[in-house]
Design goal:
Blueprint (H helix, E strand, L loop, with lengths): L1 H9 L15 H4 L2 H48 L12
């Protein structure tokens, strides 16, 4: 088993030479300038959309926290009377 692993690591595999098929030019297989510009535009647009979405989600979460705190304060105020004493059984 050891000899087989050693033989596989020692014998190099032939590296293919990078070349195009006959009849193709490099302009036909690369995206070019317009491809780069379009890809960059999509990346920038996606980034702005993600930032906007995070901002909106954070805003909704903060509003829910404020509403929850307001309801808790109202519940505390309802359980106490004007003298500051808690009234049993009231909500």
């Amino acid at each position: 088993m050891h000899h087989l692993l050693l033989a596989l690591t020692v014998s190099p595999s032939p590296a293919p030479t990078p070349s195009l098929r006959p009849g193709l030019s490099e302009d036909q297989v690369t995206p070019g300038t317009w491809g780069f510009v379009l890809t960059a535009f999509i990346v920038i647009l996606t980034t702005f959309l993600i930032v906007d979405m995070v901002r909106r989600i954070r805003r909704v979460r903060y509003r829910a926290q404020v509403e929850e705190a307001r309801l808790a304060a109202e519940a505390d105020a309802a359980t106490t009377d004007e003298n500051g004493d808690a009234t049993p059984g009231t909500r």
